[in-house]
Amino acid sequence: MVEGTKVIAEIIISAVGVGVSVSKYVKAAVKKIDEYPGIRVLHHPMGTVIEADTIDQIFEVSKLAHEEIFRIGGKRVVTQIRIDDRRDKPRVMEDKVRALE
Fold first, then answer.
1. pLDDT of the chain along its 101 residues, tens only?
2. Which domain, by its residues, includes 79?
3. Is residue 101 situated within a structural domain?
4. What is the pTM (predicted TM-score) of this model?
5. Which of 12, 17, 83, 95 could form a disulfide with 91 if both were Cys (CB 3.0 to 4.6 A apart)?
C-alpha cells in the first residue's frame, strides 16, 4: 500500500417501518459516525461519505451506526456501503470531485 492512500466509502443507513419521519434515527446514526476517531466525514442529504485509513474502520463505523438505530428502538435497518479502495496512490475524497472539473 502506498503511504497516504485512503479508503473512501459512502454509507446510507435507513430505519424501516418507523413512520414517515426518520430524523430521530438519522441523527443517532450521524452522531455515532461523527464520534468515531480518525476518520473524515462529509454528510450530504442522502447519506455520508467517509475517508479512512483502513477498510476495517469503514466496516466498524458502519456497524456502530447501524446498531445505534436498533439501540434507540428501530426494528429493521437497511445499510448500504459503497467502498472505493484504491491503493496505488495517495488521495482524499476531494480528489474524486476535482477529477470531474
1. 677 789 999 999 999 999 888 999 999 999 999 999 999 999 999 999 999 999 999 999 999 999 999 999 999 999 999 999 988 988 888 888 888 88
2. 7-96
3. no
4. 0.90
5. 95
